């Protein structure tokens, strides 16, 4: 960090209205850490936690049944062998992307308003990737042999096929999970030190003390820490764009009509961020009301997130329109049939519901009154989450069920186990998320401190 | 010979006071000085002359190592260890190796960032003398500290304490080992 550079560090505030007025370093630290340390665990934490735990049990039952009976338990059969499992995988991993976007890309773009939402958005990423990872693993058929996906010297003398996008996906997703976890933990260290110093209970002090690793806020450490955050953000940015690109390669590298398309990588990345911001809003809106955090997660945050959602939604809408146009313009009868089958075939209802959810209804976000109304924002976000799930369902199931050869056509029917596994991962996600907001600061304390006007160093006469 | 104390710790109420104090401490000629704050303050880094940082170099090395590992692992496996002839297509099909090369570059660079950060900061550090000052617990909340260490050649228990008092701190305390 040379002295001739502009003396504005990246986390320095640009506008003070991001945090409600009246806060000091002490009130911010105490307010956020008290949720974990001193406040009684509220009933509105226990109720969703218990529901999530119940759904987690459903997941465990579904996985146990799957391990005992095999993937035939799901509705998958030739020609639709991917169905819900891969739909859920793509949906979950897409949701995770918003967390990385908020923590990495917005950090590089110096959008300091992100400082009060990045922590729980990153946690969301981590848990969403955990849920996403379940599906390809369970779909393997023999999940206990998952390590065959990695190259290692073995007595069978076989190795993975590096020309397959499915192997690329293994590396992309496991790298993404590792880097997200590292980024999240590094971001937590100064706040863990705050919790260690604030905790009155000996057990908590020991646990947070071990996790904080002896962080003491030394200037020489902060200097390296800031560099490390920027470097991790710089690494996570191309990574997050690559992950959904590689996920889209799972489809585009195949020659199936409806999959074999160059528009997929950007379209998947935009869709991922679209659904991810919807999930951030779905989490943030109840959280700020429950814990009285409206002064830290302000309407400006919600409005900004709604704008990102709207912008990525327009990219997605453009992709839908161009996907249809290109399949007509290609003159390829299989491509044309695939699109026509989506619109008018046996799954037409899912296609038109998806168009309504992702393309039509979210347009109400153009209205500022809607963007600043929490109820409407919540409704639009849930609608986008449903729409983005349907998008992946349409891409996967509807493309697979009628390919080149009419004699191999078929219809996919989900079974109760498909539903149980999916709903179960929702349980896993919310179970982990509620544990997180109980045990760790859900808002980054040290980054919020830098948003306060007092954090500026005033110019003094030398 | 081990000095009787680790150093002297002065407490300030805001970042401006800390940056001003850091400048004065440096001007006075002290070099074994550390500032403690609840968030990063660029002006303090400058006042303390913290310019050098090896971390970007470590990350660069990690990234290059990752990229080479990724590419040559695939090259070795696809060409030497487990060649599969598909209609006579080339074994060294480099475009299909790019994705994993890229992912491993990022993975190794990110791991190097975190390990490098811990290594350069000496973390995890289970014990550090500054924690012996009870008020130091506020360094992670809303207080700003500067510590002149006893290993500094200019350090003198009384003179340095007097100098720190002249900087108008809230309090100056001795840091036991």
Brief synopsis:
The complex is a heterodimer of chains A (462) and B (177). Chain A is an all-alpha fold. Chain A has helices at residues 25-37, 43-69, 83-108, 118-139, 165-198, 202-212, 219-252, 264-290, 299-329, 333-344, 348-360, 368-371, 374-401, 416-439, 445-449.
> Could you give the order of the helices and strands of chain B?
EHEHHHEHE
Kindly report the CATH topology of chain A. Formate dehydrogenase/DMSO reductase fold
Fraction of residues in β-strands of chain B: 5-15%
- Please estimate the helix content of chain A: 55-70%
Please report the distance between the alpha carbons of the first and last residues of chain B.
14 Å
Which chains share the greatest interface? Answer: A-B, 76 and 69 residues
| CATH top level class name of chain A | Mainly Alpha
**Category by helix and strand content of chain B:** alpha+beta
Q: Ends of chain A: how far apart?
A: 23 Å
Give the C-alpha Rg of chain B: 25 Å
Order of helices and strands of chain A: HHHHHHHHHHHHHHH
Low-confidence stretches of chain A: 1-16
Largest sheet of chain A: none
Contiguous low-pLDDT stretches of chain B (5 residues minimum) are: none
- How many separate structural domains of chain B? 2
- Shape assignment of chain B: rod-shaped
Supply the number of structural domains of chain A.
Answer: 1
| Total E-strand runs of chain A | 0
Oligomer: heterodimer
Written overview of the protein:
The complex is a heterodimer of chains A (462) and B (177). Chain A has 462 residues and is mostly helical. Chain A has one domain (21-151, 159-455): Formate dehydrogenase/DMSO reductase domain (Formate dehydrogenase/DMSO reductase fold, Up-down Bundle). Chain A is built from 15 helices and no strands. In chain A, helix 5 (165-198) packs across helix 6 (202-212) and helix 9 (299-329) crosses helix 10 (333-344). Residues 1-16 of chain A have low confidence and may be disordered. Chain B has helices at 15-27, 42-47, 55-81, 98-121, 157-165; strands at 7-12, 33-36, 144-149, 171-175. Chain B has a four-stranded antiparallel β-sheet, covered by helices on one side. The chains are: A mainly alpha (462), B alpha+beta (177). At the A-B interface, helix 1, helix 5, helix 7 and helix 15 of A face helix 1, strand 2, helix 2, helix 3 and helix 4 of B.
């Amino acid at each position: 960090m040379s002295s001739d550079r502009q003396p504005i560090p990246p986390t320095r505030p640009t506008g003070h209205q991001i945090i409600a007025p009246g806060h000091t370093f002490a009130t911010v630290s105490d307010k956020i850490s008290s949720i974990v340390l001193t406040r009684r665990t509220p009933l509105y934490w226990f109720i969703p936690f218990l529901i999530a735990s119940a759904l987690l049990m459903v997941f465990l039952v579904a996985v146990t049944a799957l391990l005992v009976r095999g993937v035939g338990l799901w509705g998958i059969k030739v020609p639709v062998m991917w169905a819900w499992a891969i739909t859920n995988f793509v949906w979950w991993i897409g949701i995770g992307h918003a967390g990385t976007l908020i923590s990495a890309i917005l950090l590089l773009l110096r959008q300091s308003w992100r400082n009060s939402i990045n922590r729980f958005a990153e946690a969301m990423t981590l848990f969403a990737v955990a849920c996403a990872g379940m599906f390809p693993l369970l779909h393997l058929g023999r999940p206990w042999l998952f390590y065959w996906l990695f190259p290692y010297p073995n007595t069978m003398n076989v190795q993975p096929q590096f020309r397959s996008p499915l192997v690329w996906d293994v590396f992309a997703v496991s790298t993404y999970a590792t880097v997200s976890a590292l980024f999240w933990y590094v971001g937590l260290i100064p706040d863990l030190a705050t919790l260690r110093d604030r905790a009155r209970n000996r057990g908590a002090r020991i646990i947070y003390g071990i996790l904080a690793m002896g962080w003491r806020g030394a200037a020489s450490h902060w200097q390296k820490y800031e560099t490390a955050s920027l470097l991790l953000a710089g690494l996570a940015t191309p990574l997050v764009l690559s992950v959904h690109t590689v996920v889209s390669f799972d489809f585009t590298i195949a020659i199936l009509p409806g999959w074999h398309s160059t528009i997929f990588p950007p379209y998947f990345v935009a869709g991922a961020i679209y659904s991810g911001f919807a999930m951030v809003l779905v989490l943030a809106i109840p959280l700020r009301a429950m814990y009285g955090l409206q002064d830290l997660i302000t309407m400006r945050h919600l409005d900004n997130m709604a704008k990102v959602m709207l912008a990525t939604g327009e990219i997605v809408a453009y992709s839908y329109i161009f996907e249809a146009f290109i399949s007509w313009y290609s003159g390829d009868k299989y491509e044309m049939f695939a699109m026509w089958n989506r619109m008018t075939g046996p799954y037409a209802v899912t296609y038109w519901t998806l168009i309504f959810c992702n393309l039509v209804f979210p347009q109400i976000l153009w209205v500022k009154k809607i963007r600043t109304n929490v109820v409407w924002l919540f409704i639009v976000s849930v609608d986008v989450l449903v729409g983005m799930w349907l998008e992946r369902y349409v891409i996967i199931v509807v493309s697979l069920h009628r390919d080149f050869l009419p004699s191999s056509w078929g219809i996919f029917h989900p079974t109760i186990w498909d539903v149980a596994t999916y709903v179960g991962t929702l349980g896993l996600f919310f179970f982990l998320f509620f544990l997180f907001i109980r045990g760790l600061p859900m808002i980054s304390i040290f980054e919020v401190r830098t948003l306060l006007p007092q954090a500026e160093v005033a110019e003094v006469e030398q | 010979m081990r000095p009787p104390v680790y150093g002297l710790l002065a407490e300030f109420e805001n970042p401006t006071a800390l940056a001003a104090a850091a400048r004065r401490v440096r001007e006075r000629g002290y070099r074994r000085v550390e500032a403690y704050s609840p968030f990063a303050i660029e002006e303090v880094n400058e006042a303390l002359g913290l310019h050098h940082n090896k971390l970007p170099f470590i990350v660069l090395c990690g990234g290059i190592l990752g990229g080479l590992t990724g590419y040559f692992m695939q090259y070795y496996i696809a060409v030497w260890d487990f060649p599969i002839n598909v209609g006579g297509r080339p074994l060294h099909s480099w475009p299909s190796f790019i994705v994993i090369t890229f992912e491993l570059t990022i993975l190794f660079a990110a791991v190097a960032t975190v390990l490098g950060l811990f290594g350069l900061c000496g973390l995890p550090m289970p014990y550090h003398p500054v924690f012996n000052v009870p008020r130091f617990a506020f360094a992670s909340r809303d207080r700003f500290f500067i510590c002149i260490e006893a290993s500094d050649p200019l350090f003198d228990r009384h003179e340095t304490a007097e100098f720190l008092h002249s900087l108008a701190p809230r309090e100056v305390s001795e840091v036991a080992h």
